[in-house]
Amino acid sequence: MKIGLYPGCSLEGSAREYAESLHAIAPKIGLELKEVEGWNCCGASSAHAVDHLLSLALPAKILAQAEQQNIDELVVPCAACYNRLASAKTEMAAEQKTRDEVVKIMNMPYSGSTTIKNILEVLDHLLTPETVKAFPAFFPYKVACYYGCLLVRPKSVVHAERMEDPVQMDELMKRIGAAPLDWGMKTECCGASFSITRTDIVGKLCGDILEDAVVRGAQAVIVACPMCHSNLDMRRAEIEKVAGKKYDIPVLYITQAIGLALGLTPKQLGLQRHFVPVSLQGKQKNQQNVPAALKAAVA
Question: Could you say which of 64, 171, 195, 235 is the most buried, measured as most Cβ atoms within 10 Å of its Cβ?
Fold first, then answer.
């Protein structure tokens, strides 16, 4: 599968390990990525709070660049970037006046022809039961799949089938041998951009998320958003200060979990970059230790 890639700022900075793990697993699962040339920041969580037209023009320019480079489908791994690109495309499709204003600001043609996909949609297409049969290892852990806000909201923009109880990440984790838990915090907010300005709020919100995961027996939290990862991983000290207790549970990008099931090394997947140590490893397949969940997934 050949598809365009918009990495966004986080995957070249604070979420470098997300990019490393994505590029590490891509050739193993038949994914060919073509990065948008000359891409710019999408505005993420700040532009729309400052200037509405700017918040549309920044992601629209990325889509216009993709069109010029004949990219019909574009995967956007960062949930915040995905949400901004999808929001801009939706609004410009609904309001011709707004679209005309944005095109004038960009000084570039724009047709809205590029399809935007999040990382879960792409992985769901590629990680079929037949594909998983060829994986040399599996990921036999109890996990809490954390979607956060931006992959599933607002419904009018991202068209999530189950906004309050999404299952796409859960199903992907089942396919690689994990046991996703039924838990109550999978779409609760982590504090998002308060990570810098109000770490006390982040500490409280993320503490509630980790507490629920740990109480239910999760061995790892799985995410697909750099902002969620940084709040749950990098802000662990603030979380523990508010909670008055320690949490050792690691937070992995879904691409890292898949990489471990592919038998890739922790360094290839950027696991050494985490603030909270990750001790989980992929387990080699054999007839004695393949878990029932994986057997069912590949049957």
Answer: 235
pLDDT value, residue 296: 46
CA distances from 195 to 76, 169, 218, 239 (A): 22, 24, 24, 11
Phi, psi of 32 (to 5 degrees): -110, 120
- pLDDT tens-digit readout, 252-270: 999 999 999 999 999 999 9
Question: What are the sequence ranges of the domains in the chain?
Answer: 2-119, 129-298
Would the pTM of this model clear 0.85, i.e. be above it?
A: yes
Q: For the domain 2-119, what is the CATH code?
A: 1.20.1050.140
Residue identified by tokens 């920044």 is: 58
CA-CA distance, 295 to 299, in Å (whole number)?
A: 6
The architecture that CATH gives domain 129-298 is: 3-Layer(aba) Sandwich (3.40)
Classify each residue of 251-268 as buried b or exposed e, where b means 16 or more C-beta atoms within 10 Å of its C-beta: bbbbbbbbbbbbbbebeb
